Amino acid sequence: MSNRSFQNIYGLSDQQLEDLDKAEEMLxxxxxNSAEELLLEMLKDSPECIPVLNxxxxxxxxxxxxxxxxxxxxxxxxxxxxxxxxARNERRRYERYIEY
Length: 100
Known about the structure:
Blueprint: H1 14-28, H2 32-45, H3 50-63, H4 67-80, H5 85-95
C-alpha cells in the first residue's frame, strides 16, 4: 500500500489497513451492522489495535448513540496511549450525555 498519504505509525498489516478502510466505508454508507461485525472480528485478532478501538468508539458514539460503550472503547485507547488527545476529546464529548 505505497500510495497511502499517511505514516502507518501503528505498524498495521496491509490486511488490517484494507479492513479498516472497508469498515470506515461501511460507516459512511450506514452499513452499521457490517461495520460492527468487521471491527469486532479485527479486535479479536488484535485486542490492542488503537485504530480499531477508535473506530468502535465512533460506531457506538456517533452512529448507534451507545455512549457508555463508546466511552469504554476510548478508555481502552487512553489506557494504551494516554497522550491520545483525539480519544480524550471524544470520550469527553460522550460523557456529557450520560449519568454515572
